[in-house]
UniProtKB/TrEMBL annotation:
This is Histidine--tRNA ligase. SUPFAM superfamilies: Class II aaRS ABD-related, Class II aaRS and biotin synthetases. One of its GO terms (cellular component) is cytoplasm. It comes from Polynucleobacter sp. UK-FUSCHL-C3. It comes from the Bacteria. PANTHER family: HISTIDINE--TRNA LIGASE, MITOCHONDRIAL-RELATED (PTHR43707:SF1), HISTIDYL-TRNA SYNTHETASE (PTHR43707).
């Protein structure tokens, strides 16, 4: 029969990789608790209109990367979420979450973008992100950047650098925009197709182009920072001084504009050279206009999102992946029949006390020799093997074998099993 494979660009996360994911997830849970961020989970499928409005029509995501389809039953236009912010803002508005004051939120989960699969770029990938909603000052911009830095340190990532920029406010961008339009119009013949289209719809996005042929032209374009007014500059300068006061190194990159439409003031990215072309592990910024644009009462907000696959790959390169943990403490061997019944009871009583146990289950459903069971016990990484054969059972005993240290094996009464196991585990 022909095999069915996974969809291109959508990966299985195999047991051998799960220790790394668990490690990352634990670090994220510690991080969000340390800063008082609360979890939020939104559906994977949303109305297509949510992303068109929330991300912006003239973006890579909305123009060409969304998995959109029509609901066969009612004709609704739906999309697999390509990112987290739009849906969180929707939920915040729908449930009035910032009615009583600002909120610090975090989320994690799979995202979907129809991109060309390659290293660090998948069609289903996972993001962790934070959103701080209802805060206007640069203090919160600094806080969320500090969180990122703490996370990279905690995970032992090497070679991550921070780039920041300010996108100012809408009127400042408008002045910059007309300067950009005159500049790029002057060089229209050198523009690629995407940029020519964006020259009309969203000239700022030309600066985001990844086309190498466009880079020198972009280099010479008018810089937004030169168009910022007093308040925007003040916001940006306070952010910088808070980062400096906390010894966070950063570089100002005037060309950093980010792919999404809704950003204003601070934007930033964490980048590494260790991952090849897909070097951005996380990025974010302030998006004060978004909540109003999504139909809510105007409120400022900022946040960032990180690509978990890229971070895990960088953990590997930084040699900071956790060691694989053994899958259990005790492996229980038996000979079927009454010994199986007793082994199962013993395993359950140990589990009730918090001991991790694997019960030997022969693949063919028949009983197998103790020798082959012992090989399995060894491979499991367990500290102890508990052996219950017919002779032991007759005496209401088991044999407890130390698999890692001395290799000592001794008979113990089944009535005293738990304390014997705990003593042996503590001894190690
Ligand atoms: P890129 O410039 O690499 O396309 P982006 O600007 O589209 O990134 P964001 O929308 O800011 O990315 O998403 C935040 C993070 O999610 C990125 O910095 C990256 O680490 C990760 N990410 C984005 N797209 C993918 C993808 N297709 N596969 C894996 N990770 C991704
Ligand atoms: Mg992208």
């Amino acid at each position: 029969m022909q095999k069915i494979s996974a969809i291109r660009g959508m990966n299985d996360m195999l047991p051998s990789q799960s220790a790394a994911w668990l490690h990352l997830e634990r670090a994220l849970s510690d991080l969000t608790r340390a800063y008082g961020y609360e979890a939020i989970r939104t559906p994977i499928v949303e109305s297509t209109a949510l992303f068109q409005r929330g991300i912006g029509e003239v973006t890579d995501i909305v123009e060409k990367e969304m998995y959109s389809f029509e609901d066969r039953l009612n004709g609704e236009q739906l999309t697999l979420r390509p990112e987290g912010t739009a849906a969180i803002v929707r939920a915040v508005i729908e449930h009035n979450l910032i009615y009583e004051g600002p909120k610090r939120l975090w989320y994690t989960g799979p995202m979907f973008r129809h991109e060309r699969p390659q290293r660090g770029r998948y069609r289903q990938f996972h993001q962790f992100g934070i959103e701080a909603l209802g805060f206007a000052g640069p203090d919160i911009d600094a806080e969320i950047i500090l969180m990122g830095q703490r996370l990279w340190d905690e995970l032992g990532l090497k070679g991550v650098r921070l780039e920041i920029n300010s996108l100012g406010q809408a009127d400042e961008r408008a002045a910059h925009r007309s300067a950009l339009v005159s500049y790029f119009t002057q060089y229209q013949s050198q523009l690629d197709e995407d940029s020519r289209r964006r020259l009309q719809s969203n000239p700022l996005r030309i600066l985001d182009s990844k086309n190498p042929a466009m880079q020198s032209l972009i280099e010479g374009a008018p810089k937004l920072l030169e168009f910022l007014g007093k308040e925007s500059l003040q916001h940006f300068e306070t952010l910088q001084s808070l980062l400096k006061a906390n010894n966070i190194p950063f570089k100002i990159n005037p060309r950093l504009v980010r792919g999404l439409d809704y950003y204003n003031l601070s934007v930033f990215e964490w980048i590494t050279d260790a991952l090849g072309a897909q070097g951005t592990i996380a990025g974010g910024g302030r998006y004060d206009p978004l909540i109003e644009r999504m139909g809510g009462k105007p409120a400022p907000a900022c946040g960032w999102a990180m690509g978990m696959e890229r971070v895990i790959e960088l953990m590997g390169i930084s040699e900071s992946l956790p060691e694989t943990e053994p899958v259990c403490d005790v492996y229980v061997l038996h000979q079927g029949g009454e010994t199986l019944t007793q082994a199962l009871i013993a395993a359950e009583s140990l589990r009730s006390a918090g001991v991790d146990v694997i019960l030997h289950c022969p693949p063919d459903g028949q009983s197998s020799s103790f020798k082959s069971q012992m090989k399995k016990a060894d491979a499991s990484g367990a500290q102890l093997a508990l052996i219950i054969g017919p002779d032991e059972l007759a005496r209401q005993e088991g044999q407890l074998k130390d698999l890692r240290g001395t290799g000592e094996q001794r008979a113990i009464p089944l009535a005293g099993l738990l304390s014997a196991v705990i003593d042996a585990l503590v001894d190690r």
